[in-house]
Amino acid sequence: MSGISPGRCHADVNSAHGFAFQCLATMQYKNAWFPFEHQVLLRPTSDQQTRSNMSQLPAGAVGTAVGVLLYSFVCEICNIVMVWLLLVHEEGLSYVACISYFALLSTTCSIIQQFHDYIFWEDVTRAQFDNKTENVGNPQLTLANGSVGLDLVLFYIQFYCYTVEATFVLFWAFSLTQSVYGWSDKPRLRRIFKQINAAGKIISVALPLLTVCLLQVPATQSSFVGFIVLADIEFALSCFGGCVLLIMILVRYVHTRRQLKTWSHGYGKKSSSTETTSHGAHTSGGGRKPQSQGIYDRWLLIRFTIAFVFLAIFEVTNIVFQISAQQNNNRDAAAAAPDLSAERAIAMMYFNMPGVTASLLAFVVFGTTRPFRERMYRTFVPKWFQRQKESTNRASQHIQYTRRDLAAKQRSTSFKLSKGIDVDTVVQMDDLRAPEREGVPKNGITTTIEAGRRV
């Protein structure tokens, strides 16, 4: 023991005791043999267990997350069915189809982003907080709510899809206005409007892509007002232009109804000799092959109006989202740590719903026409139920036709004999499905004619 001080020896003994206690504590935590009072100190808390089971999402926001995610999947399924219906009816290039394609893409990206945010909620929130504190005043924080990495990519894909859908609605309103006012029926203007409609679909896809690319330029992000105007101008102009065209269509409708004329439009209808599809395709009468039934009905104006109203509501929601994002940026810039509360998580979850609702709306508004309903009935309803319903419908139609024929014969007999003989015609209708009885034929009809005296 020479050369070793008593104080150092005592410290070594204490450190050895501490190391032994740590080893025993570790064994206790795994094998659960240590006394209860030590187990309380070493077991994980209930909050830590909840975070481990539900990833990083706050426990109070789990129910909302599940609800929003299920709603998003319902919208996704409806959009897939809508795309299938359009392809089956050979309307893959119509405006409804183009809107459905991009709505499906945006909904898919939203679901991916929700999974990413729910699983890595704390990491995503901290990354957004760091981005907001390091880039104070950057207008992209207002547009994307401080998203970075994968979230930022998914946001811009959704933003691009929303703008494309709005632009498609604008050119669709213009095409519908041509049909209502008969502009496209004039030979001199037909080719011009056909080229405009074709160019409109290209512009609807290309122009928003150019806008997204310009938003990534540092010079654009240096101006807050210029950045926000560039981001929202195309969507706002599409809403404004569509509103003007919709008013023109409604004015024509009211004018037609006040003159007691039948309201009709040639949009999406095909003639017998020359067929013009909804997207400008022109087919001559000779050697044409049979085409599928159109997907539009007489409620097209109402359906389009509903879709446009939702587009306007979505624009308002987009403005509210940007204002909320700016408020979050101001709070995070003044805070010392990110807000990981359940209230903050729930508020952000609700903003995922308007974007995915476009997929559901496309199906509810345009997927419920008669041709689409019949196609879904033949495809998804069990065959045995269809056969049973068809048998019931045939029996009901047979009863209606029989009654109609008997009424016509009764009127004819009364008319022929009214001037010579007083005839009382009694028609007794029994249940056609009842079994045959004595004195009653199988068709269940008994006719008695009593001859009277001559008038």
TrEMBL record:
Domain of life: Eukaryota
Region named Disordered: 265-292
TM regions (residue ranges): 61-86, 93-115, 153-177, 198-218, 224-251, 300-325, 345-368
Extent of the signal sequence: none
Keyword Transmembrane helix listed: yes
UniProt keywords, alphabetically: Membrane, Transmembrane, Transmembrane helix
Biased amino acid composition, Low complexity: 271-282
Name used for this protein in its record: Glycoside hydrolase
